[in-house]
Fold these 3 entries.
Entry 1:
Amino acid sequence: MTYRLAASAEMLFLDLPFEERVRRIDDLGFEVEIWNWTTKDVGALARTGATFSSMTGYVTGTLADPDGAAELLRTAEESLLAAEQLDCPRLNVHGTGLDAQGLPVVATETVTPAMWLTAARTLERLAALGERAGRVFTLENLNTAVDHPGAPFARAADTIALVEAVGSPHLRLNLDLYHAQIGEGNLIQLVERALPLVGEIQVADVPGRCEPGTGEIHYPAVAAALDRLGYTGVVALEGWASGDPVEALDRFRRAFDLTR
């Protein structure tokens, strides 16, 4: 395959200590993704020798109001220091901070033109931080129907518009196809539209947010499209295991195996 595979240590091997989860995913040949680095021993994670693909790029804050933006940028600088320890190339952000249940810290029913402008300016400053540090921030689309009601700038169309407006190689899309299937669908056309802006792609099946093959998305067709379009980045499983996590990762790998 032309792209690389990663998996989230936040959602697999949940019976193990976090560092052991990282080791198991690495031993199985996948790059590793993590969320909130402040709850981890970053030094211990670095010593596992795993290749880290992505991590959360802020701790608190929001994109679209001045006080929240200042907080997001402040904690993004702290996140860059953790990313340096882990040699993690991509740091992920959302339209607003999410709590432990995935709900927006600041829920938004209507996104105003002023909020769009503030979000774009915040992302320009975030991209400048990434450029100075030699890292890339990625803006993730979310779904508001199931997992993240009230999250602003949630649709893939919203994140595409913002990343295009900033126009920096240090701000890319984290194109989450699980969220996109719930919110917008038409995944092959979405991949074709978004791929020039993509920093990485995340996947899980719908419904249930488990590994490919457990729901309605035909991920081998997505894999074929990525190959046809020449994608060489990361495809990451950000989903739960429907059963044994080793089997779940094997199903994920087989769904994206272009030789089958």
Entry 2:
Amino acid sequence: MRLCYSNLACPDWTFAQSVEAVATYGFDGLEIRLFDGEVVTPSLGESSRRRAEAALRDAGVDVAALDTSLQVTSKDRESFLSDLGVLSEIAAQWGAPLIRLFGGKLPPEPAARTDALKRAGDLLVEAAPVAGRYGIRLAVETHDDFSSAHTLAELLSFAGGSAGAVYDSHHPHRMGERPAEVLEALGPLMWHVQVKDAVRLAGDDKWQLVPLGEGEVPVRELVGLLPGAGYDGWVSLEFEKKWHPELAPPEESLGPQERLLRQWLQTLP
């Protein structure tokens, strides 16, 4: 397994700085969510795309994934597919093999929920060839109304193998699911792993993100189970300073968390 980090950790850096940090802090690659501190969208200009491509090429940095905000429960299928085509082209230009998608919202009523899952699965079937033209795979994250690995697995069953899963360590834990349960639910469709830690605050499902090893999310347990689950892909540190400005700056947070993750990986059988 190889380690990368999401540049959500460094919203005040230029893209080139986030690329340089891969070697500075001991990572093997980069997961891209931001360009010069802003979320990557289909409207990103060609000059910016080329600048990012050059920075990655010159530094010899591998890209694990391009993270997007696209939601597979979108009712505007035409816009979804159009945006996906542009983002797939960007991902290919930057050498990213995978695009991260969100699930979005599901209705609570059982019949409507099942119908929404089926329609989302159909959209993934339609979307896979759009990304596939650029050699890109699609994976939906355990997030929002798909935080439960079982809900995500249900969606992927309707997609018939057209997409995989991104296992974000925090959200299934919020749903009361242990790593072994998540790994069993997602099985070989788990194509990417993001790790973060958090502590529960007073109130209904309120959490504070913290550095790895300082919270209650069983990240070390998860990492230890990956080889037995047959997983040999990227393990990505997702330290979301972009969304949580109270978190430590990347100059203080990236190195210690990389070393801890590397230590955990080195103890694997």
Entry 3:
Amino acid sequence: MNSRNEIADLIYTNLLKKKEDLKHQFEQSKNTIGYFFIDELLPETFAKELYKVFPTTSNTVLRKNIREHKYVGYQMNTYHSLLEETLFAFQNERIVELVSKICNLKEIHSDEFLYAGGLSLMQKGNYLNPHLDNSHDKDRQRWRVLNLLYYVTPGWKLENGGNLELWPYGVKNEPITIESKFNRLIVMVTHQKSWHSVSTVNVDKTRTCISNYYFSNIPVLVSDDFHVTTFRGRPNEKTKNTILRFDSFLRNSVRKLFKKGIRENPHQYKK
């Protein structure tokens, strides 16, 4: 199993098999931050092979600042072909359509440029502060509406950290933690209120993730407006929160003046 079509067949089959349960998951959460997750998405041996061929952090891009500390990879032709085939399997039209139906969203499109998507690696001490994803694609033509996160670190445990956190009632309240479990796919909606983060990794292991975004011609919420990726501090980070608010204000102001920013965002796959 090496081609994206073969991998897509397996993903589609497993999603379809559990479609009603996944729809129920999403329905239960759609009024805040809609999400669902599915375990054992791909054969265990294949998922372990993906982990084995993940690049080391030295072959990825370090993102380290007050907002985040992680490693990303998006120029997929520089990595093992199995990673690219798997990543783009999630962009198969049948899967995009099925996920759209599960989430009851319309006019959904995949993104061949992997704008802000691709590979993610997090090691001990790495984190991602509460944030809202950038509202649009790289050309500001479509709205970002779904985030697909597929985790492939064998034996990952909740206590390891590096887990997805959803803040359905804002960043002043307690988050919902969803474990970055091996061979688990998490799909979450992205809109003006979908604050989420990744908890600090506590162990000397690397948490690996394959991520995709889906876009739409229409926003999830009528109230959605354009915004850059917007960060906040955690409830106990008052000073950091003040700094991040000002940082977000400045970056958003620049983007309103310069539609595509002062410089092109390098986080995209240039084929």
